[in-house]
Amino acid sequence: MGVKLEESKGRVTFFDTIRGLSVVSMILFHFTYDLFFISHIKLTWFTPLLMQIWIPSISYPFIFIAGCMCAFSKNSFKRAGVYSLVALAIFTATTFAKVDTPITFGIFFCMASCTLVEALISRFIVMPKGYAAAILFLLIFVICIPISAGHIGVGNMIFSLPKELYQTPYLAWAGFPSPTFSSGDYYPLLPYLFLYLSGAAFNRQFKEGGYPDWMKTFSLPLVTEMGKHSLLIYILHQPILLLIALFISQNIVL
């Protein structure tokens, strides 16, 4: 039996738990990254291939769940503003810290821009909703994943995009980085907007039908709580991990 969110007390803890799992994986990844690149610990298993798999396994669910939250948001413009402030703080901190490449258009810029676009679409055009729309947005996302490399498509069906898009320094935010662009974490508006919209369309439809009881009570010790406070954890975890990595590199002989 489904239970509609507005008729029940508390949160749908399933979303918190999935987000929490992504947070745990993110912390483990960043700590491993810091140990490898800052502490210079030889981790032979931490290969580029593993990073290519590990990173999207964290960020894709995170962005999709963020899109799902549109169904609960009372003010998406305010939420976009909060994400923007966090993105600005991260850019400022990573620029002045000079520990790694500054994060210019990272995950929170992505969250801010996607939330803003979704809010504008919902207010002035039509609210994305429905399982068919969610699948369509997801397919478009998959097709557009390599957009920052200058093309879109899957497998042998590859279509090159105009080179002019990548010759200006002003379109990196949209997903068209120039050859001189660099960022320690890069999540532009495209292609991730489509993953975000997929989550928004999916959960608006799901919410109307009512959530199963198990989704409202599904939780894992500590993990669910971490999912509830993911923003604060994101802000705090990296400085702490960096300090640990710097301490190891300066005081422990490996």
Automatic annotation (TrEMBL):
Superkingdom classification of source: Bacteria
Originating species: Lancefieldella parvula (strain ATCC 33793 / DSM 20469 / CCUG 32760 / JCM 10300 / KCTC 3663 / VPI 0546 / 1246)
Upper lineage: Bacteria, Bacillati, Actinomycetota, Coriobacteriia, Coriobacteriales
Chain segments annotated as transmembrane: 12-33, 53-73, 80-97, 103-121, 133-159, 186-206, 231-253
Domain Heparan-alpha-glucosaminide N-acetyltransferase catalytic: 11-239
Keywords recorded for this protein, A-Z: Membrane, Transmembrane, Transmembrane helix
Keyword flag Transmembrane helix: yes
The name this protein goes by in its record: Heparan-alpha-glucosaminide N-acetyltransferase catalytic domain-containing protein
InterPro entries: HGSNAT_cat
